[in-house]
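Hi, here's the filled form for the chain we discussed.

Project: internal
Contact: R.S.
Residues: 373
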Amino acid sequence: MSKYDALWVWIKEKGTDGFKLTFAEIQQIAGLPIDHSFLKYKKELRQTMKKNKHTRSQIAGRWLLGWTLFIGIGAVAGASGMLLDPSGKAMGMDAMLPYFQVLPFAEVVFQDFTFSGWALLIVNGLTNLTAAALLLARKRAGAVLGGIFGVTLMLWICIQFYIFPLNFMSTAYFIFGLIHAITGYAAWVFARQEDFAARQAEYHHIGENPSRLVVYFSRMGYAKRLAMQAAERTGAQVYEVKSTERTAGTLGFWWCGRYGMHRWEMPIETPNINLPSYEHVTICAPIWVFALAAPVRAFCRSAAQTLPCLRVVGWDVAILPGGKLELIEGNHNPGMNIVQAPAKHGVHDKFAHMLLDFYGDPAQYACETVKQP
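And the returned structure, exactly as it came back:
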């Protein structure tokens, strides 16, 4: 065990190769003051980073590197064969030339495979090898170009679909291009997510107003940034809802989706805040499968058991013709301060002009007034 274990865990969950932290941020994450002896713990940091080499963007980047090399080297090899023997006989492609005659300017550029060879070399060969070189150099542009060149390959195959009858080779390479493009997009998205950071140390007015609280749950940090911004505007204190289930990474994404799909509550750590002591509470939460995030759902239920004003819900109910009941809305602070209470009977007639203003002819709302004895 190390006194900086909290910091090492934070770095491991961050999942990126490099980032910047101020000494103040390190102290906040570690939960203790640091001094010059902190530099002696670099060995622990190196061990932590060694265990954290396989981030999602890196895994997707390796797959993308494989696709770019596979497509690029294959395209260069095919283009070289066409340029060395424009007739196509050496590669057994001479029988394919008649199919090219359906293309524009066929009588000029498609009498042999010279133009096709140069086009293949430039469009699918050199481009993919360039993307591979950028990926090896760990440049963000490598992921972007890799995804674009996957789309380029699919467009190239679409031309082949137009020229040739349906065949296995063209279909296979169209699928390769699709996977290529998806992998590039995934590598780009994962890298952006890993670079995203929401640091409380950047906000200087949080906690100045002890009567306000901002509660948040954030899996990727986006809701956390919104919560920090809200707390910065009002000086509110912040509290993070923490789940006891796995929420980080790709597996966490699917696990959270399962909870969201079923509208389940996700187990959370017991809240250690005194909610009744705050005059105003703001909740920032992500949306999972078109519904409130499961950990926040659990927090709200816990809060309802803590706040006296939320223990009773007063429902507005309408009695429709035939005796059918229709729930209108629920109120967190119900009471008897309704207009019917002093009069001891319904007040439809007195409010008919309001109905006329907002809803039209009051006759459509007519009902029998029941007078109390």
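Let me know if anything looks off before we file it.
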